[in-house]
Design a protein that fits this description.
CATH topology of the largest domain: Rossmann fold
Distance between the termini: 11 Å
Strand content: 5-15%
Helix content: 40-55%
CATH class of the largest domain: Alpha Beta
Shape: globular
Number of domains: 2
Length: 211
């Protein structure tokens, strides 16, 4: 596949973090006396902060979205700094792209206090030419804004970009932005796997398939 820039999602795409988010979501709900099944925790872990907070509000959590996001982050900081690792062959693929002069950007719902330590811990922070968050873009991944922001930061057109994503809403939004989309398997998005395969230009189980 030919592209001059690659835009990567973080959670579930580059790093194995969704199991951590399932644990965090369970902890937040159980702290408030609200039961949380493994299946529901898995569902929450695949959502953006805002979407997860909305689901929690439906269950009776009273804190506002901003307060919940702060709680999510406080619980996640240590995990991201020390305990979360890249998906198999992700580092090798990033090195492969850098060696070919492809520009790299991160497009994530995770804030800098999470994405920076986990990328540094895994030795790939310096590979990226730009870092963009949905907060900076002003919209969730239900919209293409964060991908368009990343392309702008890299100085390339959307048509020159490949986006790597594990969740359906991000895949659809990147396609709507006019970008090539590579769907990346993550078990926490398995309920949408058929549609993800259909909507992606290419679907991979492992980054080795791209080398």
């Amino acid at each position: 596949m030919e592209f001059s820039a690659a835009i990567f999602d973080l959670d579930g795409t580059l790093i194995e973090s969704n199991s951590v988010w399932a644990k965090i979501d369970k902890r937040i709900l159980n702290k408030r006396g609200i039961p949380c099944s493994d299946d529901f925790a898995a569902k929450l872990s695949s959502l953006t902060y805002e979407e997860a907070a909305e689901e929690m509000h439906r269950l009776g959590v009273k804190e506002d979205t901003e307060s919940l996001i702060k709680e999510f982050n406080a619980l996640a900081v240590q995990e991201y700094r020390y305990n979360i690792f890249l998906k198999d062959n992700a580092k090798e693929y990033l090195e492969y792209l850098k060696g070919r002069g492809v520009k790299l950007a991160l497009a994530t719902a995770s804030p800098k206090e999470l994405y920076e330590p986990v990328l540094r811990h895994n030795g790939v922070y310096g590979y990226f030419d730009a870092f963009c968050t949905t907060a900076e873009a002003g919209k969730s991944k239900d919209y293409p804004d964060v991908y368009l922001l990343a392309a702008s930061e890299l100085g390339v057109s959307p048509a020159e970009c490949a986006v790597f994503e594990d969740v359906l809403n991000g895949i659809v939004s990147a396609k709507n932005a006019g970008m090539t989309v590579i769907g990346v398997y993550d078990k926490y998005s398995s309920n949408d796997i058929v549609t993800i395969r259909l909507r992606s230009d290419k679907f991979i189980m492992n980054f080795s398939e791209m080398i």
